[in-house]
Structures are given as structure tokens and as C-alpha cells.
Amino acid sequence: MQHGMKFGVAALILQSIFLVLFGVFVKYAKESSPTSKGDVSPSDKGRGTVTANDAIFYAMFQDVHVMIFVGFGFLMTFLNRYGFSSVSFNLLLSAIVIQWATLMRGIVHMIEHHESTFTFGISSMLNGDFSCAAILISFGAVLGKTSPLQLFVMAILEVIFLVVNEHLGIEIFRAVDVGGSMFVHAFGAYFGLTVSRILYHKHHVDNKKEGSVYHSDLFSMIGTLFLWMFWPSFNSALAIADGHSRALINTYLAMVSCTLVTFALSVIFGKDKKLSMVHIQNSSLAGGVAVGTMADMMIGPWGAMLVGVVAALVSVSGFRFIHELLGKINIHDTCGVNNLHGMPGIMAGIGGVVAAGVASYTLYKDSLITVFPARLERSSGVQAGYQLLALVVTLCFAVIGGVITGFIMKLKIFDPPSSADDMFEDHLYWVEIEPEGNHPPTMFSTFKADIRETSQ
């Protein structure tokens, strides 16, 4: 069977399975179910009712939705011969993950509560988008090096590990991670990097098509701007009460301080003391990741800004020094997810440990239990310990899950690209794109060459 036909059949089978499972197990949440006459006041008849909570959730959902489809999608369009696939496979993976993650969370709920169905509402839509973020981060690590069938496999398996780890962290350990820096960003980054290591091929390195040209970097910067604008919504979407406004403020301040320091460090570390678009596209966002776990905590405005400053240093240094070191151990990171999501995600987890350890009623007053629900029966030290445990377990799940998934993805049945011409290339999958014999020099490959030249 031709590769394209195999992909089409697999997609139809997958959607058919989702359709059956949704028909059997999923029903509307209470707020979306029909009401009887006694449940609706005369003034509301014919108009439908939307609670304040629904309105807040949907507003947050809209912002996060834009981040997933426009932000992540366009951020990955920097590859000069892989733009169609970058933004469109982003859409494809999201369509799979939203459905599969909803089912996986529902299955966990049914097992835990001994029920035969589960509900789907606006909050479920938001959680589906959060799951998409983790898988799209992993997609960034293997961008241009996998077939659509391999991406199907990665999405299906990663969601399983993601949901189980999330359940352990939130429900069992009762750790706090309101912005998903541990359970989404760090998990997605190190899952993807592990898969990339397992799939490693000599043609991944110094491939002349791995990079950008002027206009593709401009498209990528559009993704950066959308992510930058809506990141406060991402980190605050699940926060409640006064923690919601704190999450907005802390993320906002971390982002602006991170951006300023990113520009400064890009010049300091850059060749000829000039700015690098790689830094600006990615490291300017690191503050949002680094503050995520503690976004709704009482870290203070200055603390949020300090987190942003350190995040910029970690991220830009990662691109300048650690990116090359990963290459030496055969971990090829196409989008630099270690520097934007991985290390800042770990930083956020460690920050959450510290913030939980110093949390007290004097500092939080009645919102202590709102931010840390487990504090009803735990001390601050015990909560900090569980925060650390959640981070360690998340990294273990990411690496172990990535190893298992990577080896399955290598199977020939999933059509792994094998030649240099098949990688970072749109023409294999799109009728509008023709093979190109000569490819111009690329910015990202030039950037890596500059690193090697400078370090010699």
C-alpha cells in the first residue's frame, strides 16, 4: 500500500474508533444538558443560560486555543521546506489529541469512580488543549524527521503516559502545577527528546534543509507573538479565586523581564554581537514556562520578574552551549524544545518546591487551601516534598514513555524517513510542493555552524 493511502486509511480508522467510543461513553456535562421548566426562570426562556464560571472558562479556552493552533503552529514554520507540514501536522495532531486525551481522562475517571460514562463540558475542552500543548512540544523535537504515521503513533502513546502521569501528580501526590510547566512543558520536552534520540539518524545532522530563510523566520515570529500575548491566559486558565489574578500578573511580569534579558543576552552571546532570531523566537517565551508552576503562588511581583530574568539566561545559554552538547550524544532537537520548554519547565518545578516550602497562612490567609488543597492535612515541608516527587516522576515517565514510543515508531510499517532528501521536506506529503534540487543556506544550520566556529 502506498504511504499516502496507508495514512488516509489509518486516519479514517482512528476517527471511526473515536466516534464509537464517544457514542458509548461520553455525555454532555450538566451545564450543557437540557433543563426542565422549573430549572429556568421566565426571563431566561429562549435564551439559554451561561454561568459566570462557563464564561470565564470559555474566555480562557479561546486564548489557549489560539496558542495551540496559531502560536505553536506558526512557531514551527521556520523550516524553509517544511512549512506546510509544520502548521498542518500541528492541526492534525491537535485533532487527534483532543479526542484521545478526552477519552483517556474519561476512562481514568470511570475506573476511579466506578461509573459507566463520563461528561464533556467547557472545562474538558480546555484540558484537551493543554494535552495538545504537551504533544506539540514533543512534535517540535522530532519536527521534519517523522512520517505522519509515526506522528499518529507518538500522539496515541504519549497521551497515555501524559494522562497517567498527570493523574499521579495531581490526584495522588496532590502536587500543584497550575500552568502545566511540569506536567505539560517538561514532560512534552523530554518525551520528545527521548523519542528523537531513539529515532536518531545520521541524516538528521547538518542536513542542508534543516533551517530557515528570511520569510519563514517571519512566519515563525508570528507564532511567537501569539504565544507571547496569550501566555498569561495559559498559566491562569485553571487558577481560581485570587490565584487567578496572581497568575495573570506573575506571568505577565515574568514574560516582559524575560524578553528584555533575552535581547541583551542574544547580542552578548551572538556572533559579531548581533541578535539571533532563534533566541528571540524561543527564549523570549521561556519566562512563561519558568513561572508556570508557581504562577498562582505568592512569589511577589519582583519574584516573578526574577524568574523571567533567570529563565532568559537558562534558555539563551541552552541554545548557545547545551544545544551542541545534546548533538554530541545524538539527541537532535529540531526546535530547541529543551531550551524553551525542558529546562525552564524543570526550573518552574524547582521554584514550585521552594514556594510550597515557604507557604504559610500568614502569607496566603484563607487562600492557602485554595492554592494548596492538600495543606488541610499536610505541612509546608511535606507539600514541598510532594512537589519534588511529582517533578521527578514526570521526568521518569517522559523518558521511559519516550523510549517505548521511539522504538515502536522505528518499525518499518510506520514509514520512517530514511534518506536525507526525505527529511525536513514538504514535497513527500503535499501535491502543491515539488522537489527542489538546490536549497539555499539556512539560518538555523548557519546558527549551529557559528556555535561550532566560536567554540573552536
From TrEMBL:
GO terms for biological process: ammonium homeostasis. Residues 55-413 form the Ammonium transporter AmtB-like domain. Keywords: Membrane, Transmembrane, Transmembrane helix. Coiled coil: none annotated. Pfam families: Ammonium_transp. The chain crosses the membrane at residues 7-26, 55-79, 91-111, 117-139, 151-170, 182-200, 212-231, 251-270, 305-322, 343-364, 384-409. It is found in: Membrane. It is a multi-pass membrane protein. Belongs to the ammonium transporter (TC 2.A.49) family. Rh subfamily. This is Ammonia transporter. It comes from Meara stichopi.
